[in-house]
Write a structure and sequence with these properties.
two-stranded antiparallel sheet, mainly alpha
Length: about 130
């Protein structure tokens, strides 16, 4: 996948990049992935068709619930893997929820809201093992 595809996946899972971050970004990079619509609201650019005969791609819709979107991705990937016993506490619903919470905190757009490494080590997903 390319940078364009990666940015679309980020927005699909984590939601739209905050306006203040977009405005601080270099104009070239900002306009490479995003565009302003409807009176100045920012949105992700949709991938254009590669040629005239190609069908347009499915529109990228920013997530309204990043935690739920991230959980869906984790569950889809987990379902492809080995099945575990319901008694296996390392693969319980609680552990998956803690994992999703930790990953979400690591991927939070705002650096001031993102989990710090020392706090991540104290997160229950890591510290309760």
């Amino acid at each position: 996948t390319d940078q364009y595809d990666q940015m679309q996946k980020i927005v699909q899972i984590l939601g739209m990049v905050p306006d203040d971050m977009l405005l601080r970004a270099d104009q070239h990079h900002r306009l490479q992935f995003f565009e302003q619509v409807d009176g100045g609201r920012w949105t992700i650019k949709q991938r254009p068709a590669t040629d005239a005969s190609a069908r347009p791609s499915t529109p990228v819709i920013p997530s309204d619930d990043p935690v739920a979107s991230l959980k869906d991705v984790v569950e889809k990937e987990a379902s492809k893997k080995k099945r575990y016993s319901s008694q296996d506490t390392d693969h319980s619903a609680r552990q998956y929820n803690l994992f999703v919470d930790l990953i979400y905190r690591m991927l939070t757009f705002s650096p001031t809201e993102r989990i710090r490494p020392e706090d991540a080590l104290d997160h229950p997903f890591i510290s309760d093992r």
